[in-house]
Specification:
Elements: H1 10-22, E1 25-26, H2 27-34, H3 42-54, E2 58-63, E3 66-71, H4 75-91, H5 95-105, H6 110-128
Antiparallel strand pairs: 1-3, 2-3
Length: 129
């Protein structure tokens, strides 16, 4: 994912969630899916869709008289890019600093702590293989 694509705003991310879930979608379908969870008017949603197309995150194809929108990148690719961008910006790229800060400053349940231990143990076993 290039630098331009990693700059997806929170509002654009909301549009992408709908498209990842149920592509391809027309703008009318996207508007319909967002009407109960946002207060955005249709013009705002059209603007967000157009931005995503120009960022090459959304593709568009014409089906009859309607345009259908589909993702050009996966949710996982976007998450990875956003995570990398966040780490660079907030923690100078240090995953360790992020993880330590998170663990020290969050109230984790016993179950969450155990899940973290399991993930770390699996990672250590993989690295030792």
């Amino acid at each position: 994912m290039d630098t331009n694509q990693s700059k997806i705003s929170d509002a654009e991310w909301r549009i992408m969630e709908e498209v990842w879930q149920d592509a391809p979608l027309t703008s009318a379908e996207i508007i319909d899916q967002l009407k109960d969870t946002t207060e955005w008017n249709p013009k705002t949603i059209h603007t967000l869709i157009n931005r995503l197309v120009s960022k090459e995150v959304l593709g568009v194809k014409r089906e009859g008289r309607f345009k259908q929108f589909y993702p050009l990148v996966s949710a996982e690719e976007c998450r990875k890019s956003e995570t990398t961008s966040f780490l660079k910006k907030i923690f100078a790229g240090s995953r360790q600093m992020f993880i330590l800060n998170f663990i020290k400053n969050e109230n984790l349940s016993k179950k969450e702590i155990e899940e973290l231990r399991e993930v770390l143990n699996q990672k250590q076993e993989e690295d030792n293989s």
